[in-house]
Write a structure and sequence with these properties.
This protein has 279 residues and is an alpha/beta fold. The protein folds into 2 domains: 126 residues, Orthogonal Bundle (Fumarate Reductase Iron-sulfur Protein, Chain B, domain 2), CATH 1.10.1060; 123 residues, FAD/NAD(P)-binding domain (3-Layer(bba) Sandwich). Helices cover 41% and strands 6% of the residues. The chain contains 14 helices and 4 strands. Helix 10 links the parallel strand 1 and strand 2. Helix 3 crosses helix 5 and helix 5 packs antiparallel against helix 6. This is Glutamate synthase small subunit.
C-alpha cells in the first residue's frame, strides 16, 4: 500500500466505465468494463486499513476486505483470491451483484466525504484475474472422510454447502432440476448484470474440486427423497425461493400477463440453448 495515508484525497473514487452505447444496444452482456490492473491497484490503495473495518463488519459473510485490498494493491492476486475464498464461495459473483452501496461500500469510512473504496469491482477483478491466470482452490491437504452428502438445489445455498463440505473431506453430490448450476444467479439475473459464462466457469471449478453435479434431475420425479436419505449420510435442502409475489392487481391473470420468474427462466434457457427436452 502507499505510504501516503492521504492517498484517498489525491485519488478520487473511480468506477469502471460502461461499455459504449452502440455495444449495449446490440449485445446483452455485462454493461461495465472490468478494472485494469493499474485501476484496481490504484483504487485498492485508497483503503485506510481501518483498525475496526466497518466494511468487513457490514458484509454479510464478513469478508477480509482490507486484507485482500492490500494484496490486490501489491499485485499478489493468487493470495488475494485465496483469502477472498476463505469467507465466500462465489466472490466473483458477489463482486458483480451484491448491493455494495448498502453494505461494505455504504459503511466505508470514506463514503460520505470522499467516495467509498470500490470494493465490489476490486473483488470482481481479483477473482476474474486469478481464474484467468490459472488459480484454482488448493485441496491438496484435504483428507477424505468417506462421507457423502446429497445436496438438493444448485443455487447459492447448495453451492456454498458443497464447497464447505468438499473443503472438509466430504463428498458432495448436487441435484438440480435445471440444466446449469446457479439457481436464480443463472436463471433469474439477466446477463447485462451477470453473464452466464461466470457460472459456467464456476461449475468447471467446482467439478475440478470433486463436486459432482446431477443436473436436469428433479427430486420427486427423477429421484426420490427417500432413496437419497437411504443412500447418503445426509441430505441438504437448498431448494430456493421460486414463488413470485403477487401484486394484488386487477387482471393479473389476464392473457398476456406473465410472472417475472417464469419469463426470466424461459428467456435464459433460450439464450443458453437449452430446449424443452433439457427442461
Amino acid at each position: 500500500m502507499s505510504q501516503n495515508v492521504y492517498q484517498f484525497i489525491d485519488l478520487q473514487r473511480v468506477d469502471p466505465p460502461k461499455k459504449p452505447l452502440k455495444i449495449r444496444k446490440i449485445e446483452f452482456v455485462e454493461i461495465y468494463e472490468p478494472f485494469s490492473e493499474g485501476q484496481a491497484k490504484a483504487q485498492a490503495d485508497r483503503c485506510l486499513s481501518c483498525g475496526n473495518p466497518y466494511c468487513e463488519w457490514k458484509c454479510p459473510v464478513h469478508n477480509y476486505i482490507p486484507n485482500w485490498l492490500k494484496l490486490a494493491n501489491e499485485g499478489r492476486i493468487f493470495e488475494a483470491a485465496e483469502l477472498s475464498h476463505q469467507t465466500n464461495t462465489l466472490p466473483e459473483v458477489c463482486g458483480r451483484v451484491c448491493p455494495q452501496d448498502r453494505l461494505c461500500e455504504g459503511s466505508c469510512t470514506l463514503n460520505d466525504e470522499f467516495g467509498a473504496v470500490t470494493i465490489g469491482n476490486i473483488e470482481r477483478y481479483i477473482n476474474d484475474k486469478a481464474f484467468e491466470m490459472g488459480w484454482r482452490p488448493d485441496l491438496s491437504d484435504v483428507k477424505p472422510t468417506g462421507k457423502t452428502v446429497a445436496i438438493i438445489g444448485a443455487g447459492p445455498a447448495g453451492l456454498a454447502c458443497a464447497d464447505v463440505l468438499t473443503r472438509n473431506g466430504v463428498k458432495a453430490v448436487v441435484f438440480d432440476r435445471h440444466p446449469e448450476i446457479g439457481g436464480l444467479l443463472t436463471f433469474g439475473i439477466p446477463a447485462f448484470k451477470l453473464e452466464k459464462e461466470v457460472m459456467t466457469r464456476r461449475r468447471e471449478i467446482f467439478t475440478g474440486m470433486g463436486i459432482e453435479f446431477k443436473l436436469n434431475t428433479e427430486v420427486g420425479r427423477d429421484v426420490q427423497l427417500d432413496d437419497l436419505l437411504k443412500e447418503y449420510d445426509a441430505v441438504f435442502l437448498g431448494v430456493g425461493t421460486y414463488q413470485s409475489m403477487r401484486g394484488g392487481l386487477d387482471n393479473e391473470d389476464a392473457p398476456g400477463v406473465y410472472d417475472a420468474l417464469p419469463f426470466l427462466i424461459a428467456n435464459t434457457k433460450q439464450i443458453m440453448g437449452f430446449g424443452e427436452n433439457r427442461r
